[in-house]
Amino acid sequence: MQIRVQCGCGEAACPEWAVVELQGVVQPQASLAGTTRGLHIGRLCSAPSPSSSSKAGFTFTVGYHELAGTKVALKKPLLVLRKKKPEQSGCEQERAAEVELEVIGVIRHKILFKDRPKALISKPATKEKKTLQPGAASAT
Known about the structure:
There is one protein chain. By secondary structure, this protein is mainly beta. It has helices at 92-97, 134-138; strands spanning 2-7, 16-22, 43-47, 57-62, 65-84, 98-113, 118-119. The protein is elongated.
């Protein structure tokens, strides 16, 4: 079986993609269990990195949880491929054996979130206890 890979970017460089690596499981609400395509999970932001570190920092906010992560280079780049339909030429057996893939992006980095999330829920306001003056209690 022959697999042809074509770069659909032409003369320009292929778009740069990144992988987001999370520890654990992302579970949607029960009402959205069947329709996760295009689901908004959270907000990914670039955070100011400390001057001592050369790695870029990122924050990922999901609901009331915030994760801190870093950008890490992959040992080997990955390709993002899209399967193309074969053209209508030749007999059907040749077309069935031929597969053509189009390169639509290159992944050279991943954003790694390896620490536990930080809770963003603020502390509830505590009521101050009223203290009675020693003289006021005996006056009644």
